[in-house]
């Protein structure tokens, strides 16, 4: 029996209570009051935050107030779309503060993320990676703690069955009034049921108008010029 328990603890499949278990890690405000309350003060100052979400539902937009608080380098690795530097400029970001890395292989993306995390030159690293082993997650978590940097790991929902050793795991789902958020795992706290995060006061363009069936924003009609 002891060997089985040792194996489960090694894989971080069981939770072991201790006097330190109730000590909350240092938090940083997300800039959204309801989200801060649900996260017991905000996001962890360092460590890995797993975000399970489909692309295009505002899964990056909700972190903009959080990202705008940081003064050091913010790194985007393999984002699932073209990055508009002009848009970031008008959001108040210095172009020298942003770095975008695109790789052809997932192993190269993991290497780049690890180097950025432990460099102590970065505040936040955002990595889009569909599959990750427990050993790889532990390496990234350790690098994040060593460099005092936060890693956002973006993955599609339900890509693998086992839980990764992360400081926080969130599942985001598109909602007609914003985003439904489920806290699946958090260090120093318990999982929570899904709650609706209304974005009407932050980004009205992500919220459906009354009577619409979804929160998909309709593109404006293109202007046609006479030849």
Automatic annotation (TrEMBL):
<protein>
    <recommendedName>
        <fullName>Recombinase RecA</fullName>
    </recommendedName>
</protein>
<dbReference type="InterPro" id="IPR027417">
    <property type="entry name" value="P-loop_NTPase"/>
</dbReference>
<dbReference type="InterPro" id="IPR047610">
    <property type="entry name" value="ImuA_translesion"/>
</dbReference>
<dbReference type="InterPro" id="IPR017166">
    <property type="entry name" value="UCP037290"/>
</dbReference>
């Amino acid at each position: 029996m002891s060997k089985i328990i040792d194996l489960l603890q090694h894989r971080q499949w069981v939770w072991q209570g201790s006097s330190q278990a109730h000590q909350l890690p240092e938090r940083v405000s997300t800039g959204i009051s309801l989200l801060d309350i649900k996260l017991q003060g905000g996001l962890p100052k360092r460590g890995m935050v797993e975000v399970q979400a489909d692309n295009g539902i505002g899964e990056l937009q909700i972190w903009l107030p959080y990202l705008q608080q940081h003064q050091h380098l913010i790194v985007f690795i393999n984002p699932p779309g073209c990055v508009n530097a002009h848009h970031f400029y008008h959001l108040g970001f210095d172009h020298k503060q942003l770095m975008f890395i695109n790789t052809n292989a997932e192993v190269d993306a993991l290497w780049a993320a690890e180097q950025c995390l432990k460099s102590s030159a970065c505040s936040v690293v955002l990595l889009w990676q569909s599959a990750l082993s427990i050993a790889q997650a532990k390496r990234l978590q350790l690098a994040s703690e060593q460099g005092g940097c936060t890693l956002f790991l973006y993955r599609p929902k339900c890509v693998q069955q086992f839980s990764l050793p992360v400081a926080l795991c969130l599942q985001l789902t598109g909602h007609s009034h914003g985003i439904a958020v489920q806290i699946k795992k958090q260090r120093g706290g318990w999982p929570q049921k899904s709650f609706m995060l209304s974005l009407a006061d932050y980004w009205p363009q992500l919220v459906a108008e009354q009577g619409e069936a979804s929160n998909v924003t309709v593109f404006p009609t293109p202007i046609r010029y006479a030849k």
